[in-house]
Amino acid sequence: MFSGQEIIASLRLLVVVAKADGEVHPDEEKALVDALQGLDLPGGYTAKALLEEEVALEEILAELKSEEVRRQAFRAAYLMAHVDSKYTAAEQRLIERLREQWLIPQEEINQLDKGLSLADTTLMFSISAPVAAQREDEANRKIKQYLVLTTLTAAIPVPLVGDLMVAPLQMGMVYELGTIYGHHLDKASIKAMLSTFGIGKGLRIAISSLAKLVPGWGSIVGAVGAFSTTYALAQVAKKYFESSRRLSLDSLKPLFAQKEEEGKKQFELQKDSIANPEVAEQIKRIGEKVSTGELKPEQLQRHISELAGKIG
């Protein structure tokens, strides 16, 4: 478990990775603020303070003393650097320095790369488009399924795996909603939609993964983030498809931001009804099988489809 000092040092390290190219991108800043919202950080720290302070990397590394803490901090930093669209030269140098200084074995890198393959998995389910009069009801049924699936998945108490499974699920939701409204999107189009709204940012995922190792934080960080972004994505996707894709994704950014805030409130209202111990346990087992290589990312589709059927 992380001490208060180690928590702050690990978060500082993630900010250093985010600043590797000179500054924190607005999407990353928002991801940090969202991920830490409502958490009681040690020493009265805030997301704003973490973003604004300038701390030497050597000072951060000196505060991360135990092998286990360093391993988890490295995993979060590596994850953050690789999840986003490009792994820059500056990020490569920083990650390589951490790897060499902390003697991270190649086996660990291989496991991380295996987990990262989840982030590139796209779930595209074969469903039939309903008649126009039934579209709204079918869309809302699908949204309910994915709210439960993404929230329970993000709450898996296993760092890394559950957090990386959320984006493929959200992509699956967009694909199914598109089909319901008569539009068949390809993988690139769905990824572009998630990217436009800043979904799947490495900083948010990295913090969620670290949070599962902090006493008192548990899995709440990932659960709230997954629910609110899935909720907002569902609303903008419906709007987009109802317009026959005539609306630009950029024009929907304000609506996404509004619905994401609404989603955080809805989470508090719906978290008890979302709880589904049977589905949660199955998701956990799926995640563990993926992390060990027993289950390949491309095999997720069948398992997720079966789980969705249990939600109704």
Explain how this protein is built.
The protein is 68% helix and 0% strand. It is built from 15 helices and no strands. The protein has helices at residues 4-18, 26-36, 47-52, 57-63, 67-83, 89-101, 106-116, 135-154, 161-180, 187-196, 202-211, 220-242, 253-274, 277-292, 300-311.
Approximate strand percentage:
under 5%
Major pleated sheet:
none
**Total beta-strand segments:** 0
Distance between the termini: 38 Å
Structural class: mainly alpha
Number of helices: 15
- Percent of residues in helices comes to 55-70%
What's the overall average pLDDT, rounded? Answer: 85
Q: Secondary-structure element sequence?
A: HHHHHHHHHHHHHHH
Which overall shape is indicated by the principal axes computed on the Cα atoms? Answer: globular
- State Rg: 19 Å
Low-confidence stretches: none
How many domains make up the coordinates?
Answer: 2
List key phrases describing it.
single chain, 312 residues, mainly alpha, TerB-like, 15 helices
Task: Describe how the helices and strands are arranged.
Blueprint lengths: L3 H15 L7 H11 L10 H6 L4 H7 L3 H17 L5 H13 L4 H11 L18 H20 L6 H20 L6 H10 L5 H10 L8 H23 L10 H22 L2 H16 L7 H12 L1
Helix pairs in contact: 1-4, 1-5, 1-11, 2-11, 5-6, 5-11, 8-9, 8-12, 8-15, 9-10, 9-12, 11-12, 12-13, 14-15
